[in-house]
Each structure stands twice: as structure tokens, then as C-alpha cells.
Amino acid sequence: MSEQKKELVVVALENGTVIDHIPSDKLFKVVSILGLDKSEKQITIGNNLTSKKSGVKGIIKISDKYFKADEIDKIALVAPNAVLNIIKDYKVVEKQTIGLPEEIHDIIKCVNPKCITNNQPVPTRFEVVDKKNIVVKCHYCESMIGQNEIEIK
Questions:
Q1: Which of 33, 57, 103, 135 is most buried, by CB atoms within 10 Å?
Q2: How many Å separate Cα 84 from the centre of its chain?
Q3: What pTM was estimated for this model as a whole?
């Protein structure tokens, strides 16, 4: 009896966004911070896929969804080297590597309970002091927060 190769093919996106090159250990964090677990959109998630660039990676395909700047900043805090592919009519029309901005506004909660942002209706503001290791500093109380301590609002 001969063996037949079986393959599962994921349908190509007509319109939407593909978030590629997500570190496998950060994939579900990205899903969570973007609220994709509550989305009505068609979503395909792949994890521990072979990657020439990093060994293994995660990927998310979201139909009919394009991200705003603050959502891209959230992704950058978790997966700063991920790649966004904008798909229109089954073609990649835009491709961008995600990067952290110099400042992040009203996305992160300050870890300092005495910070004014935790006690008054003041939007948070953080300076990115280390893009490689993802370290941010609160504009108001100057608390330093590393990637593992970051709490996204």
C-alpha cells in the first residue's frame, strides 16, 4: 500500500492583516492584548512554525482587519521584530517590520502605585529607553519598567 502525502492548506486572505515572525512564546500574548480571542473576524493562528530567521515563529492571519497605531505599539511591546503584512485583493500591498516608537502614550499602566497616573485621570506616557531589551520609563514618576513587568491597559 503506497503512502499518500496529505497536506492541510490554509485559505489565503482576500483582505486583512498577517502578523508574521512573532516569537512562539509570545504568540498568545499578542492574541490576548489585541483582543483577538473575542473577535468575530476569521482568524488563523499558527505556532512553532519553521522560520529561517529565528528557528521557530508564530503567525496570525486576520480577515478584514487593519490595525491602528496604538494596536501596533501594543504588538511592538511584546514582539518588537514582528512583521505586518497588509493584504488587499489577495496581494501584499504593504509590509512593515514593527518597531517601538520613542514614546508610548496611554497603553501601559505604571507599576508605581504612587504615580499620578494611578491616582488621577492622567493618561500614561512612557519613554522607550532600551528598544532591544524593551525597557520604558514613566514620564511622571520615572519608574523603569522591563518587558516582563509591562502591564498593557
A1: 57
A2: 9
A3: 0.83
With 0-12 / 13-18 / 19 or more C-beta atoms within 10 angstroms meaning exposed / middle / buried, residue 50 is exposed
Q: Please list the residues that pair with 10 across neighbouring strands.
A: none
Handedness of CA 45, 47, 53, 54 (dihedral sign): positive
Q: Residue 131 and residue 146: Cα distance in Å, rounded?
A: 11
List, in order, residues 6 or more apart from 128 with CB less than 8 Å away: 100, 101, 102, 103, 104, 134, 135, 136
In sequence order, what E strands does the chain have?
Answer: 15-22, 43-51, 55-63, 83-88, 91-97, 103-105, 108-109, 125-130, 135-138, 144-146, 151-152
Identify the pLDDT of residue 55.
87
pLDDT at 4: 61
CA-CA distance, 147 to 100, in Å (whole number)?
Answer: 12
Long-range contacts of 8-14 (CB under 8 A, 24+ apart): 10/44, 10/46, 10/61, 11/44, 12/90, 13/61, 13/63, 13/87, 13/90, 14/63, 14/87, 14/89, 14/90
Average pLDDT value for residue range 9-30: 90
Q: Which residues contact 34 (CB under 8 A, 6 or more apart)?
A: 67, 71, 74, 75
